[in-house]
Specification:
Number of strands of chain C: 3
CATH architecture of chain B: Orthogonal Bundle
Strand content of chain B: under 5%
Radius of gyration of chain C: 30 Å
Oligomer: heterotrimer
Low-confidence stretches of chain C: none
CATH topology of chain B: Helix Hairpins
Number of domains of chain B: 1
Number of helices of chain C: 25
Distance between the termini of chain B: 51 Å
Low-confidence stretches of chain B: none
Number of helices of chain B: 3
Number of strands of chain B: 0
Shape of chain B: elongated
Structural class of chain B: mainly alpha
Helix content of chain B: over 70%
Mean pLDDT of chain C: 87
Chains: A mainly alpha, B mainly alpha, C mainly alpha
Strand order of the largest sheet of chain C: 1-2-3
Helix content of chain C: over 70%
Structural class of chain C: mainly alpha
Distance between the termini of chain C: 92 Å
């Protein structure tokens, strides 16, 4: 019961944050609403007994990625003239929603056909650090290594892109 | 009960698509993509809970790692674009136009 | 019945191989190291001479066979076999083809030897002999073929070589046009020939399409089809042998070198039509109407050409019209079912006409290519050998006894009279007189009297031996060839007629001696009158005439060429150009262009979607996705 109320609260916050992201003109405002969404999502992960993911969401997503984005937004010293003039923004958003509606309805129909099950908090350390870690380093070792190479590549790419060579224009 | 989580994931995903196609601001588009990734993450975690299998958690971690890598590169590109034209409008960059 | 001999196939093969060999030699050396002319000359004469030797062998072999079974055949290979039509590349030597073979190879060899001298100095010496050998090979295929299809192969081949050789001096456009005219007019005739062959095959071709089978089955042919076949084949003959209405190419064909005129347009190719009618005598003998038409067309052509010949000023054109006229006689002969008479006239005509042409060639050669008789004169002192041989040829052509032309022409006229064709006989006698007139007009103007162009006269000289020796040989033939077919009234036994009898379906007319004397007398009188008129007008030299009225009309050949041009050629060209300008752009090009324009329009229509904005492309993706989910959610129900 308490869990349902929590779920409802977090869900409403997440949706409101997403709407705000889509609607706000200044990206800073959008980023802030997005942070709200991320934090509510973290709460939802906790409700789904995903302890490690709850923590990682807060640390990595809300903490690292969003701070990077906010940093860049502030770094670029955006003036109101830099931002695009979007008078017809609402019209496009409504049009977009109409286009996207069938996709959503289709997915909802698929979801409806799935069997029901409960999502109570589970014990015996389901979703805990040790269990997820063991799974990660045993069954998912190769993808783990590949993702680490991916991170290396993006690191090198970012350095090159933003480094001296990129600024010769 | 679990369906509710999935409906929420669907709503967030669709909102993300709407954000990508209707906004011209570079940052908004990028963050909408991140929103879509998060919605997918939520779906992963929900299914992991249903099947009582932690593979979903591991995959959600992979998604987060990829999102981080992509964020770094995308923001580097945004910086370069801003240096080029000092505008943040996707319509300005139209060299593909025939 | 017939024996099979392998060397028959070699007779056309030697000249054809010669043609290929000489042609290749010329092509590969004419731009680099030119071979000496002697090489080409000797190579060129090997083929015809060998063919003549083999022809003699065939003659001897045939003589040894009994008369009823005088056939030698040789099937070289199966050409094609489709349904009922089974054609071999086969050769048949029977008395008729043997006679043709003998004089074609003999006169062909002589003219090749003559050409060695005449064509000296020409830069396409080798090409000339290649074409000449090719012609001889095709003519031999025509004569030796054992089925109409093989004959047609040779027929087309000689037509091709005629074109190639007429336009030999191709730097001058008018020569090429003359060659074109010859080929095109021939082609019109060939259409008739092909149609005739097709009808013949349709009628009786199912049980074998070679001459012997056709002859055996000819009684199965319906009369209507037989008449159609005869007339259509004769259309082909009018093209090849220059009768009305397709004779217009022969005078223009004089643009070619003189040996070509002698060989092709006097002795051999133009007689192919007569040979064809004789070969199909089993058909023509049964359809009297066809024979009458052939005879009348022939004799009218003879008359028309003789009228033209009386007013021409080019020495070769006189001889050309003379050829057309004599061919008319030959067709008159085979038309009244006197096939052996017609073929005998072919035989003698080959000798004296080739002689006259070669002599004219010697005159032209001596005067450095002057061909207008009103610029010649008094040449008999300067070119005695040429003069004497040409006079012999002229007497033979005019039909003066005892020269060969008299016997052969008289045979035809006698047959016409004896079978009741009085009209043909009367016109024939008239034309004989005209023939004598124009022939001796030419002789007197060229060789007698005072020279009209002193400059050319000074430089004239007798031709070299390589050219005069063939003249002398031909003159002997022109003199004595008549005695091969001496009629009974003169004490002979008609050797040629009897020799040809197994090949031809002929019924010799037996009229009274009185009729024969009338025929002979009329011919001689006509000759005498014509000769006398010519002598009185030109014997002592005469100035160049100016023509008025009918003479002018005849000088312009009754404007027939202009008529053909206005009525046939120009409308045809107009049709062609209207197709080019109107139908082609709108009917054949328009759909093709339309297709390409369709693609351009479609492309322009689709170009609208290619805006440069990536966001719009993302929208396309989402649109597609949403459409897909719409469809899928319908099916998921």
């Amino acid at each position: 019961m308490f869990a349902d109320g929590l779920f409802l609260g977090f869900a409403v916050l997440a949706v409101l944050g997403a709407v705000g992201l889509v609607v706000f003109r200044h990206p800073m405002n959008g980023a802030m609403s997005f942070v709200v969404t991320l934090i509510s999502l973290a709460g939802l992960y906790a409700l789904l007994s995903a302890k490690l993911i709850f923590a990682l969401q807060l640390i990595v997503y809300a903490g690292a990625i969003m701070s990077l984005i906010v940093f860049i937004i502030m770094f670029l010293n955006i003036q109101p003239s830099d931002l695009p003039q979007e008078e017809t923004k609402l019209f496009y958003i409504l049009g977009g929603s109409v286009v996207v509606l069938p996709i959503g309805l289709f997915m909802a129909k698929i979801v409806k056909s799935l069997p029901k099950s409960s999502t109570e908090i589970v014990g015996n350390n389901f979703g805990g650090v040790k269990e997820v870690g063991l799974l990660l380093f045993r069954d998912w070792l190769v993808p783990f290594e590949i993702v680490s190479i991916l991170l290396l590549v993006s690191l090198i790419g970012a350095v090159i892109l933003a480094g001296k060579r990129g600024t010769t224009k | 009960m679990m369906h509710n989580y999935l409906y929420l994931a669907i709503i967030l995903f669709c909102l993300g698509i709407v954000g990508v196609i209707s906004r011209r601001n570079v940052f908004t588009v990028f963050m909408s993509i991140e929103l879509m990734l998060n919605a997918a993450n939520l779906a992963f975690i929900a299914f992991a809970r249903v099947h009582e299998n932690m593979d979903g958690h591991v995959l959600a971690m992979m998604v987060m790692a990829v999102a981080a890598a992509e964020a770094a590169l995308a923001l580097a590109v945004v910086i370069l674009l801003h240096k080029h034209k000092s505008k943040l409008d996707t319509n300005v960059f139209s060299l593909l136009k025939g | 019945m017939e024996q099979s001999v392998n060397y028959l196939g070699l007779i056309p093969l030697f000249p054809l191989m010669g043609a290929v060999f000489i042609g290749l030699l010329h092509v590969f050396t004419c731009n680099r190291a030119k071979l000496p002319e002697k090489v080409y000359g000797i190579l060129a004469c090997i083929g015809p001479v060998l063919s003549f030797v083999l022809a003699l062998k065939v003659f001897i072999a045939l003589k040894e066979l009994p008369a009823a079974s005088r056939f030698l055949s040789h099937k070289a290979f199966i050409w094609f076999s489709v349904g009922d039509l089974h054609i071999d590349m086969g050769f048949l030597a029977d008395p008729l083809s043997c006679l043709m073979l003998l004089f074609v190879t003999f006169i062909g060899s002589l003219i090749h030897i003559y050409s060695i001298g005449y064509m000296g100095g020409d830069k396409n010496y080798g090409k000339f002999f290649a074409y000449m050998n090719l012609f001889l090979g095709s003519m031999l295929v025509l004569v030796l073929g054992d089925s109409p299809v093989v004959m047609f192969v040779g027929w087309e081949g000689v037509g091709l070589c005629s074109y190639l050789l007429i336009s030999f001096y191709s730097e001058d456009r008018s020569n090429v046009l003359a060659g074109n005219k010859a080929f095109i007019v021939n082609r019109i005739g060939d259409l008739g020939f092909v149609l005739g062959m097709s009808f013949l095959f349709w009628g009786i071709g199912a049980s074998g399409f070679d001459y012997l089978s056709l002859k055996a089955n000819v009684q199965n042919l319906e009369p209507a089809i037989a008449l159609t076949v005869c007339l259509l084949l004769f259309v082909g003959a009018t093209g090849k042998s220059a009768q009305i209405p397709l004779y217009v190419w022969l005078p223009d064909a004089m643009a070619g070198p003189t040996p070509v005129s002698a060989l092709i347009h006097a002795a051999t190719m133009v007689t192919a039509g007569v040979y064809m009618v004789a070969r199909f005598s089993f058909l023509y003998a049964g359809v009297e109407l066809a024979g009458n038409i052939v005879a009348w067309v022939g004799i009218l052509t003879a008359l028309l050409a003789a009228i033209f010949g009386m007013f021409q000023e080019d020495i070769k054109k006189v001889l050309a019209y003379s050829t057309v006229s004599q061919l008319g006689y030959m067709f008159a002969g085979v038309g009244v079912a006197a096939y052996s008479a017609g073929i005998f006239h072919v035989f003698t005509h080959a000798f004296f006409k080739a002689l006259l042409f070669l002599g004219a060639g010697a005159v032209i050669y001596a005067l450095h290519h002057e061909q207008n008789i009103w610029k010649m004169g008094g040449l008999k002192a300067k070119m005695p050998r040429t003069y004497i041989t040409m006079v012999i040829g002229a007497f033979a052509l005019a039909g003066c006894p005892p020269f060969s032309g008299f016997f052969s022409k008289d045979e035809i006229l006698y047959s016409a009279l004896a079978t009741g064709h009085y009209g043909i006989w009367a016109v024939g006698v008239l034309v004989a007189g005209m023939t004598a007139y124009y022939t001796f007009r030419m002789i007197f103007v060229v060789f007698h009297g005072e020279p009209r162009d002193h400059h050319a006269y000074e430089h004239a000289h007798e031709a070299p031996s390589v050219m005069t020796v063939p003249l002398i040989i031909l003159a002997v033939g022109a003199l004595f060839a008549g005695f091969f077919n001496l009629p009974a009234i003169f004490g002979g036994d008609q050797m040629v007629s009897h020799w040809l009898a197994p090949s031809l379906s002929e019924h010799h007319p037996h009229a009274s001696v009185f009729v024969e004397i009338i025929a002979i007398g009329a011919s001689v009188v006509a000759f005498a009158i014509g000769f006398k008129i010519a002598y009185s007008k030109f014997g002592q030299g005469a100035p160049a005439p100016s023509y008025k009225g009918f003479a002018d009309f005849a000088y312009h050949k009754f404007y027939v060429d202009e008529l053909y041009d206005a009525v046939i050629v120009q409308p045809y060209k107009a049709i062609g150009s209207s197709i080019w300008k109107v139908i082609e752009p709108n009917v054949t090009d328009a759909p093709v262009k339309g297709v390409s324009r369709l693609y351009m329009v479609l492309g322009a229509a689709f170009k609208v979607f290619q805006v440069g904005y990536v966001r719009v492309y993302a929208i396309y993706m989402v649109l597609g996705l949403s459409l897909m989910s719409l469809l899928l959610s319908q099916s998921l129900n």
